[in-house]
Amino acid sequence: MKVLRVISRLIVGITFMFSGFVKGVDPVGLSYKMTEYMEAYHLNWFIPAILYLAIIMCMIEFAIGAALVFNLKPKIIQWLALIMMGFFTVLTLLSAINNPVSDCGCFGDAIKLSNWETFYKNIVLLALVLVIIFTRNFSRPTLNYKWQIGLLVLVMLFPIGISVYSYNHLPLIDFLPWKVGNKISEQVVPTPEIAEVTLVYKDKKTGEKFEYTAKTLPYQDSVKWNSIEFVEQKKKVVQPYKAAPVHDFNIIDENGVDQTASIIANPGYQFILVAHSLEETNKKAFLEINAFQRQCEKDSISFVGLTGSGPSVVGDFRHEVQAMYPVYSMDETALKTMIRANPGLILLKNGEVLAKWHYNDFPDYKKTKEKYLK
Fold it and tell me: Per CATH, which fold does 260-371 belong to?
């Protein structure tokens, strides 16, 4: 029973720590997912505090996991784990049945699970937590009281520190489709289906069957062609269709013209200033980037802005921040998958992401030129 308890404790603890960590490095992304849930269950009054709730949730999950792994305050922690797993098992069952959101977000953007997969995962974890509860007679901490309290404080502060840093800069680990090194055309364009089609014919007299492709059909041989008849068509899928990771990715200018290809397929350097909402953005950052943009213009480097705000808002905003570069429209959700900052700056070359910056870390043009614009 001791061995079973240790195994259960480690599996649940490591899972909790991993889940809390991968969400903690992207608190903005977690707040987006939690907002979807709040809207689906008509709990909109939580939304103003959603970011704080996201950070607290990551802290609790990571801390419980670490406490299980290091066997800290076992009598309290095991019951907290049971309460947490009971709540989320019921919640994920409701989500699996009603499907209010496409994926649970339980592992952030690191691992995508469907609602039913999440429910089954929680059933397994709940069973392991019950094992921990039923073997609680063996729950003896290995450290003294002071060490336990000290470690508990540490494992609570650690995820909070990571979340606060990631919020004020960018995620420590980027799990988004637009992470550095990714080829954007592979993220926004679906993979087409490739199939081999075989046409089956048979001899009208003997019944013997022959297989042809569209190129090998003997229609030029009149004798052969007149002696056979079509039976069926066979299709072998070599490469299945795969939807693009980033949906609704269309960059539209003020005239309604699609500029997507000219941006993501630009063979040269391409700076993109992303602001999913101009109404909520940091205006000071826009004023600071103007000097950077003027240097880009001198060096003939393309610089554009993307936003999810409407045309009327864009016009007034450009005048207010003295933006001398084009600002195109795009789906707000797609913009949020590009960078966790409002605004944020992205550098592409030939459609590949070279660098990303939060508005708190906007770069100096001279240093950027020396490092990237070679």
Answer: Glutaredoxin (3.40.30)
